[in-house]
What we know:
Blueprint: E1 11-14, H1 19-23, H2 31-38, E2 43-44, E3 51-60, E4 63-75, E5 78-84
Amino acid sequence: MDHLTPYKLDIPQGNVISQEMLAKLKPGMTPSQVRFVLGxxxxxxxxxxxxxxxxxxxxxGGKQREHRHATVIFENDKLKTVEGDVAPxxxxx
Length: 93
């Protein structure tokens, strides 16, 4: 006997960030330039304004399919580094 299962929606959440977008980042960029490239960060900690977190999650069929995280670090209002699910060397001087 076949069982009917309810349809489960694909649920993307957060900031979609591609490797191509991250490759456009260069040390020394201003926060507004970074925001132009990556969009508004999902998480900005009011106690650590020099750190922006970009998080993306995709759930399809009720199962986690993709999860990405990138952290942008500023120093003196200039881009210092990018950490997380980033290919090595994607932020070059």
